[in-house]
Amino acid sequence: MNTLPRPRDPHLLPVQDPRNRGLVPDYPDMDDLVAELVLPGGASMYVMSAMETSRELIRHSFYRYEFATVAVTHALFALEHVLAERLGVEEPLHVLIARAADAGLVTAGLAAELDRSRLLRDQLARGAASSAALPPLRAVASVRAVFEAVSLLLRPAPAGATAEDGGGAGLARLWEEHRRAPFPDGFRGVDVGGVDLVLLDAEVAGLVRRELSGGLDDGGFAVLWRCIAALDRIVPLLHEEYCASYFARLRAMARVAAAPHTPAAT
């Protein structure tokens, strides 16, 4: 049996997806929705094409709701390419995002937002989420984070910049950001991949406070790296959005705390 829809009358114009009722009055008004998604200068043709396509997919989500989610996944193509070039390594996207946060190239908050989009992409690949996962307004926020990150990554590195002072994302600032964030509801006492989330959060927090108040000794540094290894293992397993963001930020903060104790590559 042929299940393909009947071809539309070629003289009929596309109409607004009914799931987008109330988003904007008409298609031209989508321009305002994507106006802040400005393509960065200095990007390669591949990156520019991927980013422009992601922006246009959001614009055209007026007609097809699912295009908004696809826009986020397409923007991640550009992000992954720029991260690999800037860091000089070929790694999975979640590792590249963490490395960029470690190096102070992006803030912990921005890294967490990027990792949320990466988690969605992975869920789509596994069939754990559908292409209708994001409404256009949410997609704009996610794509905006990618545009911001790409712009930061394409800037020349300032002389003497480090993970500790990069872009104003010092450890004290990251700690204050994390300290104000409530622990994810429903995850107290939860074990993920053999790791108790509350205990891991508390252990990293204690180590960061020690680093801020006088510095870690060798024993504390070893524990911190064990915590980072645990975070690397569990963050990809967290599928609830806020919880995944919370622990991605915790991982980024832990890596910044570890950076002064990591020998420079020779």
Tell me about this structure.
By secondary structure, the protein is mainly α. The chain has a two-stranded antiparallel sheet with strand order 1-2. It is 57% helix and 2% strand. 36% of the residues are buried. Strand 1 and strand 2 form a beta hairpin. The longest helix is centred in the first third of the chain and has 21 residues, at 67-87.
Q: What structural class do helix, strand and pairing data support?
A: mainly alpha
Roughly how much helix do the residues carry, as a percent range?
55-70%
Order of helical and strand elements? HHHHHHHEEHHH
Number of separate strands:
2
Most strands sheet = 2 strands, antiparallel
Detail the poorly predicted runs.
158-169
What is the beta-strand fraction?
A: under 5%
Overall form: globular
Task: Please supply descriptive tags for the structure shown above.
266 residues; mainly alpha; two-stranded antiparallel sheet; 10 helices; 57% helix
Short description:
The protein is mainly α. The chain has ten helices and two strands.
Layout: helices, strands, pairs:
Blueprint: H1 30-34, H2 45-60, H3 67-87, H4 93-102, H5 108-126, H6 136-153, H7 171-180, E1 191-192, E2 195-196, H8 197-213, H9 218-234, H10 241-258
Antiparallel strand pairs: 1-2
Helix pairs in contact: 2-3, 2-6, 3-4, 3-6, 4-5, 4-10, 5-6, 5-10, 7-10, 8-9, 8-10, 9-10
